[in-house]
Design brief:
By secondary structure, the chain is of the alpha/beta class. It has helices spanning 3-19, 34-48, 69-79, 92-109, 123-137, 152-160, 177-185, 207-216, 242-245, 308-320, 328-347, 374-389, 405-411, 434-447; strands spanning 116-120, 142-146, 164-167, 189-194, 220-225, 252-255, 268-272, 352-356, 362-367, 399-404, 421-428. A seven-stranded mixed β-sheet has the order 1-7-6-5-4-2-3, with helices on both faces. A four-stranded antiparallel β-sheet has the order 8-9-11-10. Helix 5 crosses helix 6 (152-160) and helix 7 runs parallel beside helix 8 (207-216). The modification N6-(pyridoxal phosphate)lysine is found at residue 259.
Length: 449
């Protein structure tokens, strides 16, 4: 895709639209000297080089990659206007786009027309909104989430002043159902957070089984799909369908288009199965919501001003890569195939050990050290990461995840527990190009041992 061409098209179309409203003289206070601008821009471009190459498959560290060119063009097209999707008069066109993409996300998860939802500036805010509604419905009951859930849940429980209940995990890093049942039996929990795709290991928690348990105790279920949600597109083909199909019966779900949805940062989403929860957002404003009797997006959001450009970027992307198995799903499938194949290669290696079987596109592994102990594994994992990322030639960018001695004992009892835990290497293969680069990546990691 010729990004330069389509960016030029976007700017040209913007200039045509602005010309339709008549000429005017820009204020002198906004004028800057072209030479000064050029110098400042050159400095900016130079400073931006102080980044890791997120675009390249040699970067297999965190959940980072540039947006799709369609998202860039869509975002820029709207950003030049700078609409605000808080109220319809602030962004009528992008508000309509937001509703369309939210409907598409809802359909992907199996929600019917009675849903309610909107885009947010992040998955953190999206989860905050879901827990805000949970508190409103069960003010005297807390929230349960697995000990491997994203830390945002414990943090947001603190913000909302509700009790958070971490639930132990099983030997695959998923919420332990027996421990959850024991907690639900106390009556202290009003909402259970379930994660189909944990951010450390990519473990798929059993949404369907958690849902069954929660319903027996009159508890709500919130799905944190910020990282894993888009893998719903692979349900029944690449992945077992049960956890993903159960999302349709859960009370709320969060997904981050700025992760696997190919969007720039500033694009999360929260969806509620029952639109009646909109009553908890009710508020009044003396100077907005007056141009239409339709519901304004700001009336169902804790955030006020939100970038309409985020909706435009996602809308254009989904026109080209729809939420189907053969559309956006193929982008995710490539990363998952890479993870599964790398796991197989690691199992055959004498130098590396697979920490846990990958379920999505995150691979965790560690060097086979002598002696094979937690302290040795920890030091070797850290050394590989540091050496790889600082190599002057052919660098490779990995990350590490901390694993407790109990977690190690459950997965690798052969590793001597001479420390409280150890770091293991962690690679996120969310760029589809990782599939073709995998052999090079594996060889480079081996060279660092």
């Amino acid at each position: 895709m010729d990004l330069q061409h389509w960016l030029n098209e976007a700017v040209a179309n913007h200039e045509k639209w602005t010309a339709e409203h008549g000429a005017f003289t820009p204020h002198s206070s906004l004028h800057v000297d072209p030479a000064v601008f050029g110098s400042a821009l050159a400095e900016l471009q130079d400073r931006l080089r102080d980044n890791y190459p997120f675009f390249h498959p040699r970067y297999a560290g965190q959940m980072l990659k540039p947006p799709h060119p369609a998202a860039v063009v869509g975002y820029l097209s709207a950003m030049l206007i700078n609409p605000n999707n808080h109220a319809l008069d602030g962004g009528p066109a992008t508000a309509a786009m937001e509703r369309e993409v939210v409907d598409s996300l809802a359909a992907m998860f199996g929600y019917d027309e009675g849903h309610l939802g909107h885009l947010t500036s992040s998955g953190t805010i999206a989860n905050l909104e879901a827990l805000f509604v949970a508190r409103s419905l069960h003010p005297a009951r807390g929230v349960a989430y697995s000990s491997e859930a994203h830390y945002t849940h414990s943090r947001m429980c603190g913000v909302l002043g509700i009790k958070g209940h971490p639930v132990p995990v099983d030997d695959r890093g998923r919420m332990d159902l027996d421990a959850l049942e024991d907690l639900l039996r106390t009556g202290k929990v009003g909402t259970v957070v379930v994660t189909p795709g944990t951010t450390a290991l990519g473990a798929i928690e059993p949404v369907h089984l958690v849902l069954d348990a929660a319903r027996r105790y009159d508890a709500r279920v919130h799905v944190d799909g910020a990282y894993g949600g888009f893998f719903t597109l692979l349900a029944g083909t690449d992945l077992a369908p049960e956890p993903w199909k159960a999302i349709a019966e859960c009370d709320s779900v969060v997904v981050d288009p700025h992760k696997h949805g190919l969007q720039p940062y500033g694009c999360g989403a929260v969806l509620f199965r029952d639109s009646s929860v909109g009553r908890f957002y009710l508020h009044d404003s003396p100077y907005t919501y007056f141009t239409s009797d339709e519901m304004h997006l700001g009336e169902i959001s804790l955030e006020c001003s939100r970038a309409g450009a985020a909706a435009a970027g996602l809308w254009l992307t989904l026109r080209l890569l729809p939420l189907t198995r053969d559309g956006l799903g193929e982008v995710l499938a490539a990363g998952r195939r890479a993870a599964v194949r790398w796991a197989s290669t690691i199992r055959e290696s004498d130098a590396l050990e697979l920490y846990q079987e990958p379920e999505l596109d995150i691979v965790t592994y560690f060097p086979r050290t002598t002696p094979l102990s937690l302290s040795a594994v920890d030091a070797a994992s850290h050394r590989v990461m540091e050496t790889g990322m600082n190599a002057p030639l052919d660098p490779v960018f990995l990350s590490v995840a901390r694993a407790s001695k109990e977690a190690f004992a459950a997965r690798h009892p052969e590793v001597t527990a001479d420390a409280d835990g150890a770091r293991v290497l962690r690679s996120v293969l969310m760029k589809p190009e990782s599939e073709d680069y995998l052999d090079t990546l594996h060889a480079r990691v081996l060279s660092l041992l």
